[in-house]
Amino acid sequence: MLQLDRVRTARSPQSSSIPVRQPAAEANRLTVLGVTISDVSMSEAIEIVHAMLQRLDDAAKSVYFVNAHALNLAAADGAYRYLLNSGAIVFGDGTGVRWAARLRGIRLRDNVNGTDLVPALLTATAGLGYRYFLLGTDQESIARAARYAATAFPGWTLAGYHHGYLTTPALNAQAVECINRARPNLLLVGMGNPLQEQWIHRHREQLAVPVCLGIGGLFQYWAGTLRRAPRWLRGGGFEWLGILAQQPAKVRRYLVGNPLFLGRIVCEACGLRRP
């Protein structure tokens, strides 16, 4: 584990021209497979997270993104479903969520996924004195992701990073201590579903950080171990094909999970018992 900027004192965030939107209060919501999702545009999502960054509460505020895979997990696991709903806000990520909304006659305002929101947030709020910390993936990949982020987002301070292989209580305690010593405003946790949400939920009262985001595979893109699908493929709702081509081990998640998800949302929309 390598910590950057460990002894610098965090600066108080400066004032911003970005309008402050109260989290979830102004957002339309829908429930998909028992998980309540806020229907907002990407710009509104940035405003919501920025508002959270400016408020200091007793516990870290958790922001989650759910796609078809996460919602399948939530449908099968009541504890995970409860965990997601206990977050400060949940955004809808991907084609599956849009399909579920359209079955209710709702056209979602945007595809608010962590891979796009995090860079947009770091760019929109640059130069305001904020600090961020990266937690997740393996030692080598998180170091590469940190180097990329430090160059790509100079308007924020990279306070530190730590790998995500936290297999013992001692390693978890070490990671929490490392994060708190770095004094970030934003913690990005990339461990995949459901591990990242479970980790945030379990440790959020111990973390001296205003906001935690569960961001899935973002660090893999930043580290260069995963390439983003072409824009035309993403626009057509088939970004998962680009991921599957590079990570064939996820074949069951997509080729079994996607039809299962479709069956579940159709049953839910029709008032039938879902599988």
Q: Would you give an account of this structure?
A:
The protein has 275 residues and is of the alpha/beta class. It has one domain. It has helices spanning 42-53, 68-76, 78-85, 95-103, 114-124, 139-152, 169-182, 195-203, 218-223, 231-235, 239-246, 251-255, 257-269; strands at 28-32, 35-39, 61-66, 89-92, 131-136, 157-162, 186-190, 211-214. The strands form two sheets. It has a six-stranded parallel β-sheet with strand order 4-3-8-7-5-6, with helices on both faces. A two-stranded antiparallel sheet has the order 1-2. Helix 6 links the parallel strand 5 and strand 6 (157-162).
Short description:
With 275 residues, the protein is α/β, with parallel strands linked by helices.
What keyword list fits this structure?
275 residues, alpha/beta, six-stranded parallel sheet, two-stranded antiparallel sheet, 13 helices, 8 strands, 15% strand, globular, disordered N terminus
Number of strands: 8
Sheet having the most strands: 6 strands, parallel
What is the overall silhouette?
Answer: globular
The order of strands across the largest sheet is 4-3-8-7-5-6
Number of domains: 1
Give the topology, please.
Blueprint: E1 28-32, E2 35-39, H1 42-53, E3 61-66, H2 68-76, H3 78-85, E4 89-92, H4 95-103, H5 114-124, E5 131-136, H6 139-152, E6 157-162, H7 169-182, E7 186-190, H8 195-203, E8 211-214, H9 218-223, H10 231-235, H11 239-246, H12 251-255, H13 257-269
Parallel strand pairs: 3-4, 3-8, 5-6, 5-7, 7-8
Antiparallel strand pairs: 1-2
Helix pairs in contact: 1-5, 2-3, 2-13, 4-13
